[in-house]
């Protein structure tokens, strides 16, 4: 039996990544602007950009993606990893792909000296939250978004 492999995204993954990213954007009701896909893909392949990506693969098929980046934690004088996006295809749910990506992120955090891996999810995302509740600790923090100032 094959095992799920979690690895960094490569240039050859573009089409499969885009399919997963489309599913992620569909889940959150985001429009499909080709410029966004091109921008994010460019970030992921640029070694100097903060954004990085992991993919979960089984027998040559990508099952999931995780976009993440390093962030500073001034209160602790440390840094963490921030998981911006985690998505597995609907047919891959329950295969362990999401768990495998999160475990790999924990290993990267350890290897890079990060103090934690942090992420947010929608309160209504029950499927993902059932996974998160098993392997991570929910925080008491409330999230806010502030729009840029008007001209």
UniProtKB/TrEMBL annotation:
Q: Cross-referenced Gene3D superfamilies, in alphabetical order?
A: 3.40.630.30
Q: Which InterPro entries match?
A: Acyl_CoA_acyltransferase, Bact_Acetyltransf, GNAT_dom
- CDD domains (alphabetical): NAT_SF
Name all N-acetyltransferase domain ranges: 4-151
Instruction: Report whether Acyltransferase shows up as a keyword of the record.
Output: yes
Under SUPFAM superfamilies, the record lists: Acyl-CoA N-acyltransferases (Nat)
Assigned keywords, A-Z = Acyltransferase, Transferase
Q: Would you tell me the protein name for this molecule?
A: GNAT family N-acetyltransferase
Q: Which organism is it from?
A: Leucobacter rhizosphaerae
């Amino acid at each position: 039996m094959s095992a799920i492999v979690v690895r960094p995204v490569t240039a050859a993954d573009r089409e499969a990544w885009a399919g997963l990213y489309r599913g992620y954007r569909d889940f959150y009701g985001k429009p499909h602007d080709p410029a966004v896909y091109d921008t994010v893909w460019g970030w992921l392949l640029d070694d100097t950009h903060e954004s990085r990506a992991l993919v979960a693969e089984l027998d040559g098929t990508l099952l999931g993606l995780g976009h993440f980046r390093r962030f500073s934690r001034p209160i602790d004088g440390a840094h963490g990893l921030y998981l911006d996006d985690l998505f597995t295809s609907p047919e891959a749910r329950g295969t362990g792909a999401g768990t495998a990506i999160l475990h790999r992120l924990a290993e990267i955090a350890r290897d890079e000296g990060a103090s934690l891996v942090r992420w947010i999810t929608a309160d209504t995302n029950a499927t993902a939250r059932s996974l998160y509740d098993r392997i991570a600790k929910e925080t008491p923090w409330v999230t806010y978004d502030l729009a840029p100032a008007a001209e």
